[in-house]
Write a structure and sequence with these properties.
The complex is a heterodimer of chains A (430) and B (267). Chain A is α/β, with parallel strands linked by helices. Helix content of chain A is 43%, strand content 18%. Chain B has two domains: 206 residues, no CATH class; 46 residues. Classes of the chains: A alpha/beta (430), B mainly alpha (267).
């Protein structure tokens, strides 16, 4: 009987594990095997321009929406600068077909909002509230082939100069910028675990916003290249992590940043990609990941790109929707565009309550017990609120009462009671 | 953080309260009293601001008190309190399995200079991968929450050590910063430990409810004793427990029932 249920549980777990691994490698993965060969794993010379190393995302009519230097899977989302919201529907080899969902009312509203702001007002507000910004790089080897000669320079990639141009532009406007140049090599997913430590360290300086500057890896330089004021510029992609519990707050910030930057320099931000990750954005609602061009753009193009982008940062943080904005468009915001922070708050509190109740139900086994436990909640705090029970006790009464009366009666002497109390302290809730 | 609208301030406050609340409830289950769990949380928060540099070894290496020393210390304490060598072995096996899995997925599979933003097959962020793997492995091996915590916490540490070796072998510059647990209360070490406990608690409680409690027949008395709730007998610990360990399934189930009822009353 016991063995049987053991087998059932074990096979259940195995089934779940198989399911998870299937999910992981769904999207019929033709390039799975090369990823597992040890030579391929460590091969820095591996040509990244091979077909299959990136995915082109098209809409249902076949127009190219975006390119990704990674596998995409159905469910990934993209917001274009005009506010078009797409979700990947199916993946066919190197092509992914995205479904147009809707015009994102928030981006449309922000586009309109920033279009009506006069630049001088923004500047004024920003100057009144000089803040601190933080910049770091999770992937510190990232480089630009035309300028650096290679796509990766371990520990000191060209990305540092790109970050520096952003920092210089902000500092030139009188802001204080903490630029952490700690390397986090190698270029992998665990780099975010390492850069998390840098990011937390930067947070101690109380920045108004924190930027993790990257470059993309799609082979086509023209995908990002644009001409602004007669100069070649690498445009940017903003990345928002899906696995951040407060994602909607960061999403809100990303949308505002995109709208504000595109208002000053049209189309400087190409799109917002909603990626499967956290990218340390759970640390701050104003943490953002920026992809400055791709490795086939020149470093100078990318540096100019982030520099132009950073002109909009003070405007966004200086004119928050809660501040008495000079223009009316706030009121014009279409219904249903709750601010991201409130949305995130609702999600977190809601999930906590539902999760907590669910857990209570599982761990106590029945509704009656749930009631009992909730009723006894206050008792948890007795030990912190002073010796209420001892004080209320009548002289002469046994120290440990009713709860364990059986045991207490059996050994009703002070020494035993003391031992009991110590044992209980030690093992409570174990 | 001036200029943040009220929504964001509330959001930050709520998240911190929920995070610390969850952490307290989770640590509560680690052979700690309520008060002990609070002390650990306080130590993690205060310790977040203390970095201890490690001299005489390569790179700019430091260890954070709140992000590494306290959680790792707690994990080692739990290991030392483990009932049997088997329990020890399971926790350590879980640790190694977690570290290897996360290293393979995070550093080998999802790497490459032009893979952005986080690896070709990146589906789950490392901060969730550690506790997921740690929790599942620990549960399969020993159905133990403590082992889940130990696996996740020490797993992160072990990956840090792998990374350190990588740095040595790849000629990283001398000023490379290795900040173990540098994220303090928000470091992956702490986060992974807490999520792993919650996860195994959830899986564990569900399974145990469904299967009528963990089997104790034929298990060594030390393990059985650790499964139990607050034990309130004063006659030497060993004897009573041994008797119980050797009991039949029926009688041990009765014991558990008594124990559970007792708990319900208590709470």
């Amino acid at each position: 009987m016991k063995n049987k249920s053991k087998i059932i549980i074990l096979s259940g777990i195995i089934a779940v594990l198989i399911g998870i691994s299937l999910l992981y490698y769904r999207a019929e993965n033709p390039h799975l095997r090369p990823a597992f060969t040890a030579a391929g794993l460590f091969d820095k010379e591996n040509p990244d321009h091979l077909a299959g190393q990136y995915t082109t995302i098209v809409d249902e009519q076949g127009n190219v929406i975006s390119m990704m230097a990674r596998k995409v899977s159905s469910g990934d989302e993209i917001y274009t600068s005009e506010g078009r919201h797409y979700r990947i529907d199916r993946v066919e080899g190197d092509r992914a077909v995205a479904k147009f969902l809707e015009m994102d009312s928030q981006i449309v509203a922000y586009n309109e909002f920033y279009a009506n702001q006069s630049v001088s007002v923004l500047k004024d507000l920003a100057e009144k509230n000089p803040g601190t910004f933080a910049v770091y790089h999770s992937h510190t080897d990232e480089s630009y082939v035309p300028s650096d000669g290679t796509e990766a320079i371990p520990f000191k990639g060209g990305i540092y100069q790109v970050g520096k141009s952003m920092v210089d532009r902000l500092q030139g406007k009188g802001f204080h910028v903490n630029y952490d140049q700690t390397p986090h090599d190698p270029h992998d997913n665990n780099a975010y675990t390492r850069s998390r430590r840098t990011a937390v360290n930067l947070m101690k300086t109380n920045p108004a916003a924190m930027f993790d500057v990257h470059r993309d890896g799609v082979p086509d330089p023209n995908y990002y290249r644009a001409t602004i004021d007669g100069k070649n510029v690498a445009r940017l992609r903003l990345v928002v992590g899906q696995e951040n519990p407060r994602m909607s707050a960061n999403m809100d910030f990303a949308k505002k940043m995109m709208a504000a930057a595109n208002n000053i320099h049209p189309k400087i931000v190409k799109e917002i990609f909603v990626g499967k990750g956290d990218y340390n954005q759970d640390l701050m609602p104003t943490a953002l990941l920026i992809e400055a061009g791709t490795h086939t753009n020149t470093r100078e193009e990318a540096a100019l790109g982030v520099s132009l982008f950073s002109e909009a940062i003070p405007a966004v943080l200086g004119v928050s929707p809660a501040a008495p904005a000079p223009a009316a468009p706030v009121a014009k915001r279409p219904a249903g565009t709750t601010t991201g922070a409130w949305k995130a708050l609702g999600w977190i509190v809601g999930l906590t309550i539902i999760g907590g109740l669910g857990f209570l139900l599982i761990s106590s086994g029945s509704l009656d017990n749930v009631k009992k436990r909730l009723g006894g909640f206050g008792r948890e705090f007795y030990s912190f609120l002073g010796p209420r029970r001892l004080a209320a006790r009548k002289p002469g009464e046994p120290e440990i009462k009713t709860d364990h009366s059986k045991e207490a009666d059996e050994v009703n002497n002070p020494v035993a009671n003391k031992t009991l109390r110590e044992r209980k302290e030690e093992l409570t809730k174990d | 953080m001036e200029r943040f609208p009220i929504g964001i301030i509330l959001l930050l406050l709520a998240s911190v309260v929920i995070y610390l609340g969850l952490a307290q409830r989770a640590l509560d289950r680690m052979r700690l009293s309520d008060r002990g769990a609070l002390v650990i949380i306080a130590a993690i928060i205060i310790g977040s601001f203390i970095n201890i540099p490690i001299p005489f070894i390569p790179f700019n290496t430091s260890v954070n008190v709140g992000g590494a020393l306290v959680p790792v210390g707690l994990a080692i304490y739990l290991l030392s309190m483990a009932g049997t060598e088997k329990e020890w072995g399971r926790a350590l096996a879980g640790t190694v399995a977690t570290a290897v899995t996360v290293y393979v997925i995070g550093s080998l599979l999802n790497s490459g200079a032009t893979v952005e933003p986080a690896g070709r097959y990146a589906v789950l962020d490392a901060i969730y991968l550690y506790p997921l793997v740690g929790g599942v492995v620990a549960y399969i091996l020993g159905r133990s929450r403590r082992a889940a915590f130990i696996s996740a916490t020490l797993g992160v540490l072990l990956v840090d050590i792998f990374h350190y070796i990588w740095l040595l072998r790849n000629g990283a510059p001398g000023n490379y910063t290795v900040a173990i647990g540098g994220g303090g209360a928000f470091d992956t070490i702490v986060l992974a430990g807490i999520v792993a406990i919650l996860l195994s608690e959830l899986i564990g409680e569900s399974f145990e409810r469904l299967s009528g409690g963990p089997g104790v027949e034929g298990r060594s008395p030390e393990l059985v004793q650790n499964l139990k709730g607050p034990e309130l007998n004063t006659s030497g610990e060993g004897d009573g427990d041994k008797n119980r360990g050797e009991g039949t399934v029926a009688s041990s189930n009765d014991w558990r029932k008594v124990d559970r009822d007792k708990n319900e009353k208590q709470e």
